[in-house]
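Me: I'm a chemist; would you kindly supply a protein sequence with its structure tokens?

Assistant:
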Amino acid sequence: MTRDTEHALSFGKAVGDYERGRPHYPREAVDWLLARASDALGRAVTDAADVGAGTGKFTESLIAHGLAVTAVDPDPGMLMRLAVNHPSAVALAASAEELPLDDASVDLVTCAQAWHWVDPVAASVEVARVLRPGGSLALVWNIRDSAVDWVERLGDIMGASEAERYDSVEPALSEPLALAGFAEFRWENQMTREQLLAMITSRSYVIAMGDAERDGMLGRVAQLLDTHPQLAGIDEYRMPYLTRVSLARA
């Protein structure tokens, strides 16, 4: 991915935290996008390229639905973990702007929690090139629901990520692709304290922090968890998420 390359390629330094802390994706969202992608094709989607796949959080959802998956990511550390987690997927080191796939070779391209790192002009051209006629691009984000008081306070302490600053309702695309559908799904991810802290330390800008800055921020998070009326005395948390899915086609 080309936008802010240093941060985009930092995740391999915190693969374990990424695995522990990052949420999965709700089945309803995956069902929705596959149904509409299949309708556009006129048949069931059979294969997909999962771009910016990381350790395979979304790859797992596609495999569970019976798809043959090619997982693409520029970070070798993340791909190594993906290959262990999902040996049935073909894992390729590459970016969204230069996909190592043949023309018209896949029914679906997915990009979960990653499109905000790419050059949307170059990536749109590449995605359109590798999609079969009638194929779809699905852009997916998990965004914490800051309408909940403790989640808003947590965000004030953590700061905003690239994904949270990005427009995940109307994501940037370029010709020959255009938006063709959008849906939002509310759900909760149950997390232990360890997983919640790992979610924080897996963020690119936190990975880039100095030790003192990171420790100070984590100390303020611990204080929130120990003192907020909705959180004090518990050791598992139900993190509310909004999962946003945009579909695009040529």
About this structure: The longest strand covers residues 178-192. Residues 121 and 174 are 5 Å apart (CA to CA). The chain has eleven helices and seven strands.
